[in-house]
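Give me the 3D structure for Outer membrane protein beta-barrel domain-containing protein.
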Amino acid sequence: MKKKIILFVAALLMAITAHAQFEEGKFYAGASLTGLNMSYSGADNLNLGVQGKLGYFFTDDLMLLGLIDFQMNSNALTPNRFMTGVGARYYIEQNGIFLGANTKFVHIKNYNDFMPGVEVGYAFFVSGTVTIEPAIYYDQSFKDHSQYSTIGLKVGIGVYL
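Predicted structure for Outer membrane protein beta-barrel domain-containing protein (161 residues):
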């Protein structure tokens, strides 16, 4: 019975701490490994990337994001890609799940594209301000859907200030 009470109190404290981090005026900085050999697009076999994000909560539970992304590909026919973009995230306070939408400008050797994307993830707080954030994402290419649209998994670390 003691263990159940301690677990309940810990879960309650984590929920209160999570709510405090998704408030208006807070800042966010994060970094993610994307792909993790678990993304798939028609042009890539292995897709591994690094993504950096900066955000600002302009209202409770809703954050604007700026992001930069670099992805390496194992396929010699497909060069590495560089992306910059903006997006937003909505946090569901009760459980830490977030829903995101973004648009990116993608530059690949001799190829440019605007790609809207969506993501669903979870902000797991390991301390009062630091999270581990696994997410599933989808980026839609309008120029060449079969080669550059991507679905994948990313795992990141976020800091809420």
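The CA atoms of residues 119 and 137 lie 4 Å apart. Let me know if you want a second pass.
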